Hints:
This protein has helices at residues 57-83, 90-118, 148-168, 174-192, 194-197, 210-232, 254-272, 296-312, 324-346, 363-369, 382-409, 417-435, 444-447, 453-466, 469-476, 483-512, 545-558, 570-594, 596-604, and strands spanning 11-15, 22-31, 36-41, 46-49, 54-55, 144-145, 277-280, 291-294, 376-377, 380-381, 523-526, 532-534. The chain starts with 10 loop residues before the first strand and ends in a 10-residue tail after the last helix. The protein has a five-stranded antiparallel beta sheet. The protein has a three-stranded antiparallel beta sheet with strand order 6-11-12. Residues 62-105, 108-142 and 146-199 have low confidence and may be disordered. The protein has three domains: 10-58, SH3 type barrels, CATH 2.30.30; 209-478, no CATH class; 481-613, no CATH class. By secondary structure, the chain is α+β, with helices and mostly antiparallel strands. The protein is globular and about 85 Å long. It is built from 19 helices and twelve strands.
Amino acid sequence: MPSRKFADGEVVMGRWPGSVLYYEVQVTSYDDAAHLYTVKYKDGTELALKESDIRSQSSFKHRKSQSSSSSPSRRSSSRSRSRSRSPGRPAKGRRRSASQSREHKEDKKKTIQETSLALPVFVLFKPSENNTKRYNGEPESTEKNATSCIILEQKLKPDLEIKRVLEQYSLRSRKDDKKKEEIYSEKKTFVAVKPIEKVPTKTKEMEFGGRIGTFMLILFLPATVLYLLLMCKQDDPSLLNVPPLPALESLWDWRVFGVILLWFFLQAAFYLLPIGKVVEGLPLSSGRKLQYRINGFYAFILTAAAIGVLLYFQFELHDLYDHLVQFAVSAAAFSLALSIYLYIRSLKAPEEELAPGGNSGYFIYDFFTGHELNPRIGSFDLKYFCELRPGLIGWVVINLAMLLAEMKIHNLSVPSLSMILVNSFQLLYVVDALWNEEAVLTTMDITHDGFGFMLAFGDLVWVPFVYSLQAFYLVGHPTTITWPVAAAITVLNCIGYYIFRSANSQKNNFRRNPADPKLANLKFIPTATGKGLLVTGWWGFVRHPNYLGDIIMALAWSLPCGFNHILPYFYVIYFICLLVHREARDEHHCKQKYGLAWERYCQRVPYRIFPYIY
């Protein structure tokens, strides 16, 4: 095994990816397995570089000074010799003078280019591209609008073309050509092994309390779901009135487990239907882009049609209320089995397919967070499928069953106003998510988190059985609200939805096409990754306006349940904690990814979720 050349904390010169330019960096760590150095640039950007892409400062400066001093001396001596030549050799002298003139112009142009590139200036880029091939750090103007990039690109095209022609037809000595060939071969070698640079290394910073925390969560999350459902079944669902633990045989029914399997595979069949468009996700560490079929809304329509047929033939969907605990236990068992399968298959997955946050080497932690990033069976993406289909559509079905159960138990000809509000608000949320299904491809769940117990349990158990808690609560604890109160709650939900949807649409449209004339008024801060950080619109108001809209809607879902008990407000309390924690994770990742640009963004937009509060 080769020995390590550079020590942690050592200041060296690191090559910027995709170029032959070197910048001053500091070595922060070294990965023995991948043989990669993690270095930090002056703007805060951290990258993994090979040892061949790192030079010591002394050797770099020596080569630079030698190159800069040799060329002028040769030109000086050549000029002196040319002036002292005999008149009998004018042709050779003139030929040499022409060559020197070209060399002088080219060296001068090269010196200007090297000087300008050495300065921390912004290089033209397209914010929609996710690449690290361009360095951004403009001190004079840190904000740009979406149309300025196109104008600058058009202005710089002639200069780029001139540069290409000069490089192609330059007249240099063979020694200079040899140096250029070596640099070019190094560049080709760098590009060829570029995927290796982005291979996920061992996870060093563990979240959720590390191994002990994730182990406790594996036990705590199922117990929490069971506790909440049992509390809702009590006449007095106060926090101090702990429900008795039911008999174990009453928690399990093989027929219920069969229904869970049938539901899962029915949604999988809808997912495999050749309807809906196929889109590409964000680039993976290898540069490859996975394809996804966008047909979640069609699956919802087909599911609604199937439920309608069952109700037409007098299928008693309201019985789900009496067996909801059994359904939750069966779903938890299925998610556990799926998580075990996912971890076993991830042990044979290639290194580049592992999740950056779930490759710690510790079984419990990787099992919980997910070891493999995008587990697939053929073209069937398990994580993407579970993200929206079984749990989200199942949530709507459970709500409908609770509405029917309320009507039957309380002998109502129409549902209560509270139940109608809860069902309507949450139905709008689910339909919106399925209609804008493509937007989920840019979320942290898809791009960063692996598919393990955390997402499997969350998608298949937590979402359908905890998010439907308000409807489940209203069946056993009916709450009467007046029309003015209902109108005020509806307005609150509409405000939250408007913030949530407009903020997400603004972000997604900017990522898809930053040159859209409709977005010309938006300003952004360029980053070293090629993306732009919006500082106007909703994203200039707070850093996560979509989280703010989510929390407002969560409050509107709980208000129809009244104020007799805190249990129906568990969702909004949990959701605030979840989004605050997720915001902290986003903050950490963005600071590492965008460096100095993220610090500028935080100065421009100081509030994270709640304006003037947090």
